[in-house]
Amino acid sequence: MKTGERTAENKICPLETAVNSISGKWKVPIVWQINEGKKRPSEFLKGIGKVDRRVLNKQLSEMIEDGILTKKIFNGLPPRVEYSLTEIGERLIEILWQLNDWGKLLIPEKE
Fold first, then answer.
1. pLDDT digits (tens, 9 = 90+) for 79-90
2. What are φ and ψ of residue 90, in 5° steps?
3. Which residue of 15, 32, 56, 90 lies most exposed, with the fewest beta carbons within 10 A?
């Protein structure tokens, strides 16, 4: 390899990382549900259209890995789980509101 030559695998693009962390059909709706105060998987299932429980759990796990959510397990019968936004997740809410406003600019052009 010549000096100064880089492979694509060595480059890290912050925008690509950000988009990958919220890509997935249900991730943005999950974040909105948490922002509205819903924290339990059963609430997500009721509040989000046709999401499958298995897919929901996978996307919740991915968002925990990405640092967007935290998971708290409560011992008891029955055991329960609650999710909440991390500081990074709270910042994502701000960005999603900005994206929402930008989306409003696009709507009149399509009517």
1. 899 999 999 999
2. -65, -40
3. 15
